[in-house]
Design brief:
Shape: globular
Number of strands: 6
Order of helices and strands: HHEEEEEHHHHHHE
Number of helices: 8
Oligomer: single chain
Radius of gyration: 17 Å
Helix content: 40-55%
Strand order of the largest sheet: 1-4-5-6
Mean pLDDT: 89
Structural class: alpha+beta
Bound molecules: zinc ion
Distance between the termini: 45 Å
């Protein structure tokens, strides 16, 4: 089910549309530090893991830079495509990590091979979910909304199960949910 999703261009178009909305919101909000006007300072990424060809616009990470001299702070809005600095698409990081739980080993091997993720990367992602994600201020706040509590050692599978729908719908819901941790702000200098 997920494998067909990875080769569906409409899925990536939907993710891009969400990212454009998030970027528009960030642009109209202006600079978080000085309320100044922000300019586009998008950058190019080379995300891995797509199962089909898409246009170059899909590789653009939306980002903004404050136009005010002396501030110039950069802000990168949340994204449903890019998870921080991870090279693989957020979708892949979620799906492959999820395959660790409740899915048979051959099935997981199939997906990781199709996507081209090596075992060490998968291990690193598992650790990221278990340690970095659970320790994040975002999750410390957000987890309170789930009752019964989400089993943290079964992330992200234990989390995606909490969203309604199935397949793509649940995945999109999860990506939207974790979007706040995907962006960031940094001073240009
Ligand atoms: Zn500013």
């Amino acid at each position: 089910m997920y494998q067909s999703l990875l080769s569906d261009a409409r899925f990536y178009t939907l993710l891009l549309a969400f990212d454009r909305d998030l970027a528009d919101a960030a642009r109209s909000a202006g600079c978080a530090l000085c309320s100044g006007v922000v300019h586009s300072a998008h950058y190019w990424r080379k995300p891995r893991g797509r199962g089909c060809a898409v246009g170059p616009e899909h590789d653009q990470r939306f980002s903004f830079c404050c136009a005010v001299d002396g501030c110039r702070s950069r802000a990168t809005p949340p994204s449903l495509r890019f998870l921080g600095r991870k090279v693989y698409l957020a979708t892949i990081v979620v799906l492959v990590s999820m395959m660790q739980h409740g899915v048979t080993e051959p099935r997981m091997r199939q997906l990781t091979e199709a996507v081209g993720v090596d075992r060490r990367t998968v291990m690193r992602w598992r650790l990221w979910w278990r340690e970095d994600f659970t320790a994040s201020a975002f999750w410390q706040m957000a987890r309170a909304a789930f009752m019964p509590p989400v089993e943290q050692n079964r992330l992200p599978a234990a989390l995606i199960e909490r969203f309604r729908g199935e397949g793509a719908e649940q995945l999109m819901a999860l990506l939207r949910f974790i979007a706040p941790i995907t962006g960031g702000m940094a001073h240009a200098r």
